[in-house]
């Protein structure tokens, strides 16, 4: 699950093992909204990737409670990798 974290909301994208988009949503940064996004999709094995930007700790804590693993991505490297895909 890729997370683009903002102050009041986040954009989440879930992909499967073949890198196909399974689910996308804009959610408020609450435990309830995250749980609703994960409902029926999280089998306890999902991993999250979160850009280490401003205030990343808030979303990291929410993800850590729900996912098997959470990784931080380097802000500059994420932007470079994204531009290479265009």
Tell me the total number of β-strands: 5
Q: Rounded to an integer, what's the Rg over CA atoms?
A: 12 Å
Order of helices and strands: EEEHEHEH
Strand percentage, roughly? Answer: 25-35%
Structural class: alpha/beta
Written description of the protein model:
The chain is α/β, with parallel strands linked by helices and 86 residues long. It contains three helices and five strands; from the N terminus they run E-E-E-H-E-H-E-H. The protein has helices at residues 31-38, 56-66, 75-84; strands at 2-5, 9-15, 21-28, 47-51, 69-73. Strands 3-2-1-4-5 form a five-stranded mixed beta sheet. Helix 2 links the parallel strand 4 and strand 5 (69-73). It is globular.
Tell me the layout of helices and strands:
Elements: E1 2-5, E2 9-15, E3 21-28, H1 31-38, E4 47-51, H2 56-66, E5 69-73, H3 75-84
Parallel strand pairs: 1-4, 4-5
Antiparallel strand pairs: 1-2, 2-3
Short structural summary:
By secondary structure, this protein is an alpha/beta fold. Helix content is 34%, strand content 34%.
